[in-house]
Structure formats: C-alpha cells, structure tokens
Amino acid sequence: MPELPEVEVTRLGIAPYLEKRRITGVVIRNPRLRWPIPDDLNDRLKGQIIHAITRRAKYLLFECGIGTLILHLGMSGSLRLLSNGSMPCAESGDSLVDRPGKHDHFDLIVEDQTILRLRDPRRFGAVLWQSGNTLQHPLLVNLGPEPLVPDFCATRLYESTRARKSSIKSILMNNQVVVGIGNIYANEALFHAKINPRTAACRIGLSRYEKLVQNIKAVLQKAIEAGGSSLRDFVNSDGNPGYFQQQYWVYGRAGMTCRDCGSVIKQIKQNQRSSFYCPVCQH
Ligand SMILES: [Zn+2]
C-alpha cells in the first residue's frame, strides 16, 4: 500500500509536469473506485489551470482556481505520466505500452497532451472534487496534524494521551491524533524509540515521547529521501513509479534476529494490523 513517503515522492515526481498547466480534459474509463468518480468532472476541470499540487495525509490535492481535485491511491493505486511523444492509440505508432490497460481507470490530460494516468487494480483509490475550501471536505476536515510539521510535537502527543489507555501503536495509527504514519513506519519508529507497541499511551512519559516523535519524523524523512534518490522517471514509465523497498529494522522481520541485540523479532496483531518488535530492545 502506498504510504505517506510514497505519496509525497509521487507528488514531487509529477508536480513539475503539471503545475501551472491548463487541463484540457479527463477520461473516466471506470468510475467505480472507492467512491464513484463524479461524472461531471470533465465539465468542471476543462480549461482550469492546476495552480499547485499539494498533499494532506495521503490525499494528493490538485488545486485549481474554482476548487480542488482530490486523489487517493488507496491500496494499489499508482500514477504515471505519458508525454507528448507517446499519445495512447495515436494514429501513427500505436504503442502497446501506452494503450490504457484494464486497470487504467482515469486520465487527467493537460495542454501539450501530457497525460496523468491512474492505475488501480483493487479500486480502493479515489478521484473526487471539492469546490471551495478543500480542507472542509468530509474526508479531510477531521484529520489530525501532519507528522512532518512542527505542530506535531512530543508535548502535544504527551498531553493528549494522559487519559488514553489504548496502546501507543493504535494511537500512532489514529488519524485524528496524527495522519499518515502508517503501519510500516509506526513499527519502525517504535523500535528506534525502544517502546513496545503494546505499551499504554498514558504510561509513556514526555522524554520518551520526545524520542518517539523525533524517530517518527526521521523514518518518514529518510523514506522520502530514499524514494527521491531512487526515483524512477514518472514519464512514460510502465511500472509503479516511485515506490521503493527499504531495509527495515523490525517490519516484516518476524522470526529473524534483531539487528541491534540478536534477539528474535516477534509479531502480534493489534487492531487487525501486524506489529513487529524486539522483546529485548523495546519495553
Ligand atoms: Zn533487539
């Protein structure tokens, strides 16, 4: 599943080709994503200029003057760009690579025939429209702070968890507390902060929260940098652009030895999600 770093790398990869460009239309091949793609989207977007592409949690926001196109990659979505020289089904040189495949549900076309194509085999992604204030959209209005902004800090996390008996892992996965950390990076940050994922949030002191917040920011930032440095070209690529495999300390390593102390990494289920931790390093 694309996590926050992949979404941010996608944003960085596509923005230079789309910002300040005029939309000439959209193609909806299958509107049945997580929510239906609005059928009047072409009328709304045609002629609009994309002023900026920003991100809130894992939502990509294409800000146009009259409103915002909201795009979410869901479980399996990916975006790629097709440039001028490789029009899909062009009259001459019809290219197999660029012909829309069965999972290519949506195209956004800007001037000079640059196409942003959404591929989403499992169709948990979303393409939506919001007029007016984007952040008032029902999916965005109740979201907690971004993990990489100063507003997300140890003091705030400490104060907001004094009465919370739920586990710190479930707190980190709660979008009203903080958005977009995701399962992989919650596991990794808890390992680096030496906190067991089952620890009740109210039992963690301020200095441990300081270490945790530092590590959350660090693992996400490192993942974004890794994605940026190994960024494949978003133009005319035929695979999943910008997704990257990293070396993890605990995530996906059940039964393997801890890279720090040599103990066996354990795996448990918390709220239907897998948690991985070192029983010796994390307490
Ligand atoms: Zn260990």
TrEMBL record:
Active site: residue positions: 2-3, 58, 273
Keyword Flavoprotein among record annotations: no
Single Gene Ontology BP annotation: base-excision repair
Cofactor annotation: Zn(2+)
Keywords for this protein: DNA damage, DNA repair, DNA-binding, Glycosidase, Hydrolase, Lyase, Metal-binding, Multifunctional enzyme, Zinc, Zinc-finger
Keyword Transmembrane helix among UniProt keywords: no
Top-rank taxon: Bacteria
EC number(s) from the headed UniProt entry: 3.2.2.23, 4.2.99.18
Cofactor note: Binds 1 zinc ion per subunit.
Occurrences of domain Formamidopyrimidine-DNA glycosylase catalytic (ranges): 2-125
Annotated SUPFAM superfamilies: Glucocorticoid receptor-like (DNA-binding domain), N-terminal domain of MutM-like DNA repair proteins, S13-like H2TH domain
Catalytic activity, reaction form: Hydrolysis of DNA containing ring-opened 7-methylguanine residues, releasing 2,6-diamino-4-hydroxy-5-(N-methyl)formamidopyrimidine; 2'-deoxyribonucleotide-(2'-deoxyribose 5'-phosphate)-2'-deoxyribonucleotide-DNA = a 3'-end 2'-deoxyribonucleotide-(2,3-dehydro-2,3-deoxyribose 5'-phosphate)-DNA + a 5'-end 5'-phospho-2'-deoxyribonucleoside-DNA + H(+)
Example GO molecular function: zinc ion binding
Residue ranges annotated for the FPG-type domain, each copy included: 249-283
Gene3D superfamilies linked to this entry: 1.10.8.50, MutM-like, N-terminal
UniProt-listed SMART domains: Fapy_DNA_glyco, H2TH
Assembly and oligomerization: Monomer.
Similarity section: Belongs to the FPG family.
Function field: Involved in base excision repair of DNA damaged by oxidation or by mutagenic agents. Acts as DNA glycosylase that recognizes and removes damaged bases. Has a preference for oxidized purines, such as 7,8-dihydro-8-oxoguanine (8-oxoG). Has AP (apurinic/apyrimidinic) lyase activity and introduces nicks in the DNA strand. Cleaves the DNA backbone by beta-delta elimination to generate a single-strand break at the site of the removed base with both 3'- and 5'-phosphates.
NCBIfam families: fpg, PRK01103.1
Name of the molecule in the record: Formamidopyrimidine-DNA glycosylase
Origin species: Nitrosomonas aestuarii
Gene (name only): mutM
